[in-house]
Amino acid sequence: MRIAIEGCMHGDLDTVYKTLQFAERKNGFKIDLLLCCGDFQVFFFFFFHCSSFKISAFESTEICFQRYPVAVRNEEDLQSLNVPPKYRSMNSFWKYYSGEEVAPYPTIFIGGNHEASNYSWELYYGGWAAPNIYFLGFAGVVKFGNIRIGGLSGIYNSRDYHLGHYERPPYNEKTIRSVYHVREYDVHKLMQVEEPIDIFLSHDWPVGITDYGKWEELVRRKPYFEKEIQERTLGSVAAAQLLENLKPPYWFSAHLHCKFSALVQHKEGTLTKFLALDKCLPGRPFLQVLEIESEPGPHEIQYDEEWLAITRRFNSIFPLTRRNATFGSVDLETEDCRQWVRSRLQARGTKPFEFVQTVPCYNPSQSGSKGSFSGYPRNPQTESFLQFLGLPYLLDCMSEPKDLSYSPASSNQRVVSSATLFTLVLFSIAASASSANLSFNFYAASCPTAEFIVRNTVRSASSDDPTIPGKLLRLLFHDCFVEGCDASVLLRGNGTEQSDPANKSVGGFSVIDSAKRVLEFFCPGTVSCADIVALAARDAVEAAGGPSFQIPTGRRDGMVSAASNVRPNIVDTSFSVDEMIKLFSSKGLSLEDLVTLSGAHTIGAAHCNAFSDRFQEDSKGKLKLLDKSLDRNYADELMKKCRAGASPSATVNNDPETAFMFDNQYYRNLQAHKGLFQSDSVLLNDNRTRKQVEDFAVDQVAFLESWGQSFLKLTTIGVKTGEAGEIRRSCPTTNM
């Protein structure tokens, strides 16, 4: 199979198609497919020029002809195109849209930062933009024959990355630019792809890709790139993480209007051949033809089963306002969804739904008239696609959510916006952050993508394993309560904190190590392991459906880790309220913090021996209940799961109701006498803590507000800053 790849289309479909037809005649072969890396509908004006291209191992070829740019369907679309008004003009795309012209090759394209965004939004999930011209959507995977092609539309902007898709046509001066910024939701879906991708398309380059090619030559041609390369801001952080995760054999990009090749060797030994191509201008390398092994043709564009299953699973959390998605609420069971999609495809077939015009085409005889059309219709392709997957149509939804969506809301819960929570948290801890020499956005200059990298690592790991958030949260407690929040719990070796039996069941280390490896690649020797642990715990709560807020950073890593310091400094599950108050007070935490932070047990799991003191083994080897305060039915469930002689690895969820959701169910469980640990149950029985338990049980928002404040106090316990400690190169070992 021969696949042509084009850089920035910039509206020159006619030019590109004629160039490929010339190449076919000159070299005696056939092009099967054209891929375009974005900026599909932009147009510029040149009267005559020569175009150059490369055909695999064949010689470079030059051809000169009139340039006929393409742009939009009609004059309404011009209002949704981010180019200066003086350049907005109808050209020839309307001929392809109307069917007057037909693309001579199947064409697949992604969006860049210069498309008619109203039309792209109609086809958010992908679909035919014109006959034989297929848009991959904001993110997507399709098959062409047996070749899997994935893509991510748009360009990366850190300010908008964590927002939802809140922009709707008609766009204003701001949203016409932000609408094409890559969003975490779309990247997160692509991160779920497990089956091999053969070719991946992105408009902007993965950040750091220059390390794998001749960047010195690139800088000689583009000297203004050097500063961005050194600062690791040239390109997309999101694309870099997708490259690391997907590892496709081929990756093509555009955007920077120059040719650059690189060869990425992944740690598993696999290779990715990266190529960025130029825009369609005289004498510029904007085309490449790739020969790739494939099944015999004829080939056609088809839906991809795995991608449809991912789309179906994640559509319920599609973020349609400025708020990001709550990934922790996604059902992680994939096999049932795959089987359901497979049966639907077997019944209907894999061909995409047919192209349908949704607006009147431009009529050159009525130039200057916008016709009778007004408004932004639903695209029948998208409607049919969603009906096929059993999903609702959400693209014209505008309303803000009515609740926090952490768990099913009860009628007596107050509603508070995340912005209110964020402001409250910042105000309440400003003094403590300052006194500890921590600061917000500590890495803004030295490693601006630090928090993004940690967050994405946590979310990816949590998607694969729903127990990860609970493990990361427990890891933070076991770190901060011993030597302060200094990552001493991560140090390995004889006699370290990890060697104490109380830490044998602590987990989440691999997630921290993974984030550290990526950070060392992008920002060597800059981000501390202590900050990674704190950020990962914060992001774990959000991944499980809890609140999102900022925390100060600037912690440094400790150099001391002793097993003997563990037991005197952590809560034992058999503790009384008095014992917990004494310990928490020694860490600068209040009684209210004690009750609030105990709410961490709304997620996570415990080994059976952690609550075995509530039962006793009788002479027949069976367990009987000792603690009569425990609900009898709940006790019976626990004794079934943790029979006498049960495996030491057997675990029970801390929260028997909503085990993987960060909500206020923990306090409801206490009221129902279903606290897993003795240290949980005593909070309901003690007059000093009962009222707060009862309040949180009926008011989730009150708990979440309090959680933000107490969590921030927790993460500032005994921090090392300034010249104290070090920034470890590897979290399990000191630099000495």
Automatic annotation (TrEMBL):
It is an enzyme of class 1 (oxidoreductase). Heme b binds at residue 601. The keyword Cytoplasm does not apply. Its EC number is 1.11.1.7. The record marks 474 as: Transition state stabilizer. GO terms for cellular component: nucleus. The active site is at residue 478. Its cofactor is Mn(2+); Ca(2+); heme b; Zn(2+). One of its GO terms (biological process) is response to oxidative stress. This is peroxidase. Ca(2+) 2 binds at residues 602, 655, 658, 663. Removal of H(2)O(2), oxidation of toxic reductants, biosynthesis and degradation of lignin, suberization, auxin catabolism, response to environmental stresses such as wounding, pathogen attack and oxidative stress. These functions might be dependent on each isozyme/isoform in each plant tissue. Binds 2 calcium ions per subunit. Residues 437-735 form the Plant heme peroxidase family profile domain. Disulfide bonds join 447-523, 480-485, 529-731, 608-642. Belongs to the peroxidase family. Ascorbate peroxidase subfamily. Belongs to the lariat debranching enzyme family. It comes from Carpinus fangiana.
